[in-house]
């Protein structure tokens, strides 16, 4: 993009007087308090803060930004600081004075204003004019050492203040923000030469890289005297004075800090995340900001954590927030697990050495650690490619069950290596802040490693050729920390030799590293990872209904809805009251399946009144399916009839999910979300044979239930693939996981090749045509197709039944059928359709063999699974966790998909919903995804977040499903439940306005008669405290009630 054009586009985004004159409440406030404008610098009166505060209290905005308003109660109360009081300290050492709390809340408030689209545009200009960051950094509160929490909050404010965003471009890597920065530096150079050409000649002629570092720029400006520095500040548009009563003096230090803060280059989000370590150490777990007790956060003080809001500035902003929050949550869980394991081990100091008085199957002492290999860095890197080590562990001292668990460690599992030492040990330490224990011990060192080869595992990975004798554990150490340790000369000799304990975590809870790595790679990728039609809706800006199917262009011209409707009456009942669809139903009776064809509007023949009523609706003509040729089948026909009589709301959801766009389906308990999702997938499978669908769920149980329903429908098994570890629970006739699917395909290949041999024998074609898929393909080209073409030529010369009966070339092949495939006494048309159906059956055999041929040619299992995932399977199922863990691997395999259907969407965090949208390579023009279907119930279950601070303060438990619902995105609410008796459903139906019951709940006997042993349809039993104790919480998030357990087991 030309530089001038990019600059002009950016300048057009700056507020102007015409922009402010007729806008929202914020633009009106800015216009009313407008003072002056100098180039790109906009100056506001401080009174605009009060106007913004009033605007935030308006009801219309409070519904859109509850998080922002929640922080205001601590900012002002009748002009007094809340809470007041003298100087005290929290348990974590933070200052508890009223001034500090007020300052923290005010910084939080400004951060919230900058982190949301409705307020950022104008508030950002105000804060630039006030030089708020410079004022804060030079304030006495900021410089006090004990106010570390305030400094962390200011760092977060600084991040959002200098965040580079460009809302007009669809690519987050747009050069426009960088060009704007370059223009600012060019202005600095120009004005510096005007102030003092002699002193600042080097600055004026220097290249960009040499003056954008704070130290270099400071050295250039330090030669100026106070008057020259003030003149340069004035020319650059910085504020020269503050209103009376503002205790802020603009001296040399203030001017210098303002210029340095404005013109030094800031690291981008990609730079920040690229430099972040994914593995913890003793500093990141036991130093701030993780030291405060986040698990019992009470909301009295703000935290330096980004928040999950209704809106985000860009996809990069969203990913950075999720990276920070997910990393904080993961480290919190790791710290808790390590402390729990060490509590069970009971380390203590005895005779100058560490002994463990307890036991834990999650930990084991390290006899010896040996560094086997340190690989040189890769090109462009500064850390080793890998650091391979070997641990000698005492497996002979543990039980067989514990040893088996340790041997079940998988490659790439993260383990934790600790050095437990005496608290008073006089030796150097990496960190002054460590985890201490009552018995005179502490955690001196914590390092992470990834399993390379577990004990008893004789598979070789990478360059390792060591033999595992059952006592050794081969690992890859954290390369970044190993390099940092080597740079510390005082620790280079014995830091790893001092490691004396290894701790592992449960596999299902220890997947934090691959998820963080997936987010990290997403941030570093260029381009827009989302579909272009979904980006604005995802960020929370624009029209909430923009991605709804009625507003999407183009839509399918014709859709066969298969077994969605049971009969014509069912279709009329469910679609007669639709607010989005207008159906032209023919007068004659039709049998399902029904085909919806987009109607051609004829405004000339239609009345004006009718046209006005239906102009906002999608118009369709209803017809029956095209007659198909009868084809014999090699297998028994699969049961695929639909017995579910869908309600009007379910049909609306199915119609929405089958069409392009975003579909949010809210399903209270028992309303048939799974049946709706199954029908949507079937419709997509049959109507769009070139498209592939990704099926997701939060839990393996829900995914297996949905996958079983799909496998019972009219979908070929070879097009189904289940990824992950939950496929073991599937009870299907054939394996649907990737390795079982390959075996099933090879078995299918043998069966089809047998049919090829039988066909060759029936037409007396010599040769072994059924040896392989390749020979079968040649047989089809050389023998089968010419025979069929010859039959068609003969039939064109003599089109009669006798010609079909005597010249059909495959009569012998179909002679084993239970009944004649070509009716002997049929009409010419019926006999011709039967003959074409027979050839279609033969063609399907060769088409399927052609699809299987790559598995015959590929030799390695890895190549076969990659081809299966990227090409053969059309419906791929996995959990959201599996997608987050395996994202990079799936993308490398060339996975491609067009539709996403997600169950339990309200139970999945935003980042775990976002990652499945990005499982294919970015082509630079946005994701090719056409449909996103989210099914869930945000009123029933929310994502599980164990950290109280992240759940309540940062709102990390917010799901994308719930956020889109709050933003006003059109939803389809299922309104009929069929799971519980109406009386039982009344216990929760109050939470779902309009929730009714299906008719059979009032008709079938099992719902009308009482359950044996129960006096009432539902009843609550009061259980007194057992041995003086009721509900207990022995450990965080683990609740138990022994009295209720005894009552359930033994009765009253």
Distance between the termini: 79 Å
What overall geometry do the principal axes of the alpha carbons give?
A: globular
- Largest sheet properties: 8 strands, antiparallel
Number of helices: 42
Organism: Drechslerella dactyloides
GO molecular function: helicase activity; mRNA binding
InterPro entries: Aquarius_b-barrel, Aquarius_N, DNA2/NAM7-like, DNA2/NAM7_AAA_11, P-loop_NTPase
Domain RNA helicase aquarius N-terminal: 91-266
Describe this structure as you would to a colleague.
- Residues 650-946 form the DNA2/NAM7 helicase helicase domain.
- Residues 91-266 form the RNA helicase aquarius N-terminal domain.
- The chain is of the alpha/beta class.
- Among the domains are: 15-161, no CATH class; 176-266, no CATH class; 360-506, no CATH class; 744-859, no CATH class.
- The strands form seven sheets. Strands 5, 6, 7, 8, 9, 10, 11 and 12 form an eight-stranded antiparallel beta sheet that branches. It has a seven-stranded parallel beta sheet with strand order 19-20-18-21-22-17-23, with helices on both faces. The protein has a four-stranded mixed beta sheet with strand order 13-15-16-14.
- Strand 26 and strand 27 form a beta hairpin.
- The radius of gyration is 35 Å and the shape is globular.
- The termini are far apart.
- Mean pLDDT is 82; it is low at 1-14, 59-87, 167-172, 425-433, 462-468 and 603-614.
């Amino acid at each position: 993009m030309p530089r001038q054009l990019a600059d002009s586009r950016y300048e057009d985004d700056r507020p102007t007087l015409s922009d402010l004159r007729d806008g929202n409440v914020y633009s009106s406030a800015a216009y009313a308090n407008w003072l002056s404008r100098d180039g790109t610098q906009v100056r506001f009166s401080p009174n605009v803060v009060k106007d913004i505060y009033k605007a935030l209290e308006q009801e219309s905005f409070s519904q859109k930004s509850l998080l922002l308003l929640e922080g205001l109660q601590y900012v002002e109360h009748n002009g007094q600081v809340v809470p007041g009081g003298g100087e005290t300290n929290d348990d974590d050492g933070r200052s508890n004075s009223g001034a500090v709390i007020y300052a923290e809340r005010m910084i939080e408030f400004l951060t919230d204003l900058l982190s949301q689209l409705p307020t950022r545009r104008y508030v950002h200009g105000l804060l630039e004019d006030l030089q708020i960051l410079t004022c804060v950094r030079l304030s006495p509160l900021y410089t006090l050492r004990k106010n570390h929490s305030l400094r962390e909050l200011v760092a977060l404010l600084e991040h959002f203040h200098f965040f580079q965003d460009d809302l007009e471009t669809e690519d987050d890597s747009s050069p426009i923000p960088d060009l704007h920065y370059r223009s600012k530096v060019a202005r600095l150079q120009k004005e510096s030469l005007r102030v003092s050409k002699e002193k600042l000649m080097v600055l004026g002629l220097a290249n960009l890289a040499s003056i954008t570092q704070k130290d270099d720029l400071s050295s250039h400006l330090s030669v100026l005297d106070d008057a020259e520095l003030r003149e340069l500040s004035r020319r650059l548009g910085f504020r020269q004075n503050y209103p009376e009563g503002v205790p802020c003096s603009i001296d040399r230090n203030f001017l210098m800090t303002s210029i340095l803060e404005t013109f030094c280059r800031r690291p981008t989000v990609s730079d920040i995340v690229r430099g972040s370590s994914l593995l913890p150490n003793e500093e990141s777990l036991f130093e701030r900001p993780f030291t405060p007790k986040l698990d019992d956060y009470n909301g009295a003080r703000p935290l330096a954590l980004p928040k999950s809001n209704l809106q985000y500035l860009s996809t990069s902003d969203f990913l950075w927030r999720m990276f920070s929050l997910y990393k904080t949550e993961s480290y919190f869980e790791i710290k808790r697990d390590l402390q729990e394991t060490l509590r069970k081990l009971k380390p203590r100091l005895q005779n100058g050495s560490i002994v463990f008085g307890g036991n834990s199957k999650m930990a084991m002492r390290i006899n010896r650690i040996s560094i086997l290999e340190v690989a040189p860095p890769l090109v462009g890197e500064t850390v080793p490619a890998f650091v391979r080590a070997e641990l000698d562990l005492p497996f002979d001292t543990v039980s067989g069950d514990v040893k088996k668990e340790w041997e079940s460690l998988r490659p790439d599992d993260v383990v934790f290596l600790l050095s437990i030492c005496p608290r008073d040990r006089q030796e150097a330490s990496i960190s002054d802040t460590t985890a201490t224990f009552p018995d005179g011990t502490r955690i001196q060192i914590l390092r992470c490693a990834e399993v390379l080869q577990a004990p008893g595992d004789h598979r070789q990975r990478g360059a390792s050729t060591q033999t595992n004798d059952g006592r050794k554990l081969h690992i890859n150490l954290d390369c970044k920390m190993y390099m940092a340790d080597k740079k510390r000369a005082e620790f280079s000799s014995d830091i790893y030799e001092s490691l004396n304990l290894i701790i592992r975590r449960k596999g299902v809870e220890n997947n934090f590293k691959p998820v963080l790595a997936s987010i990290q790679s997403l941030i570093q990728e260029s381009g827009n990872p989302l579909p272009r039609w979904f980006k604005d809706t995802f960020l929370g800006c624009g029209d909430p209904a923009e991605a709804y199917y009625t507003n999407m262009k183009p839509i399918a011209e014709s859709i066969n809805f298969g077994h969605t409707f049971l009969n014509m009456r069912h279709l009329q009942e469910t679609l007669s009251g639709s607010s989005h669809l207008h159906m032209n139903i023919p007068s004659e009776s039709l049998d399902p399946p029904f085909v919806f064809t987009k109607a051609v509007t004829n405004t000339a023949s239609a009345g004006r009144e009718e046209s006005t009523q239906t102009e906002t609706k999608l118009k369709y003509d209803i017809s029956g399916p095209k007659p198909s040729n009868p084809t014999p089948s090699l297998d028994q026909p699969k049961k695929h009839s639909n017995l579910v009589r869908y309600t009007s709301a379910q049909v609306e959801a199915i119609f929405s999910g089958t069409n392009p766009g975003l579909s949010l389906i809210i399903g209270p308990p028992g309303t048939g979300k799974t049946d709706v999702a199954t029908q949507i997938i079937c419709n997509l499978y049959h109507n769009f044979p070139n498209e592939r669908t990704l099926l997701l769920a939060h839990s393996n149980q829900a995914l297996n239930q949905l996958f079983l329903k799909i496998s019972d429908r009219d979908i070929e098994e070879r097009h189904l693939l289940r990824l992950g570890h939950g496929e073991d629970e599937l009870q299907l006739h054939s394996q649907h996981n990737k390795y079982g699917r390959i075996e099933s395909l090879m078995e299918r290949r043998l069966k089809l090749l047998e049919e090829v041999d039988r066909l060759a024998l029936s037409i007396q074609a010599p040769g072994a045509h059924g040896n392989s898929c390749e020979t079968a393909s040649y047989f089809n080209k050389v023998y089968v197709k010419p025979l069929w073409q010859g039959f068609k030529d003969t039939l064109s010369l003599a089109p009669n039944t006798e010609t079909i009966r005597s010249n059909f070339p495959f009569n012998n092949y179909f002679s084993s059928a239970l009944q004649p495939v070509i009716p002997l006494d049929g009409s010419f048309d019926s006999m011709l359709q039967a003959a074409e159906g027979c050839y279609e059956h033969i063609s399907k055999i060769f088409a399927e063999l052609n699809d299987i041929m790559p598995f015959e040619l590929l030799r390695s299992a890895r190549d076969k699974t990659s081809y299966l995932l990227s090409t053969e399977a059309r419906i791929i199922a996995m959990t959201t966790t599996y997608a987050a863990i395996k994202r990079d691997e799936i993308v490398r395999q060339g996975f491609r998909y067009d539709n996403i259907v997600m169950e339990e969407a309200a139970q999945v965090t935003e980042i775990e919903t976002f990652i499945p949208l990005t499982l294919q390579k970015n082509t630079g023009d946005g994701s090719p995804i056409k449909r996103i279907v989210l099914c869930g119930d945000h009123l029933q279950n929310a994502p599980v977040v164990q950290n109280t601070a992240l759940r309540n303060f940062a709102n990390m438990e917010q799901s994308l499903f719930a956020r889109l619902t709050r933003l006003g995105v059109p939803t389809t609410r299922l309104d009929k439940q069929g799971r519980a008796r109406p009386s039982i459903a009344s216990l929760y139906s109050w939470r779902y306005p309009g929730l009714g019951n299906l008719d059979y709940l009032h008709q079938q006997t099992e719902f009308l008669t009482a359950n044996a042993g129960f006096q009432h349809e539902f009843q609550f039993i009061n259980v007194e405290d057992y041995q003086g104790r009721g509900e207990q919480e022995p450990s965080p998030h683990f609740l138990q009630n022994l009295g209720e357990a005894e009552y359930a087991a033994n009765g009253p």
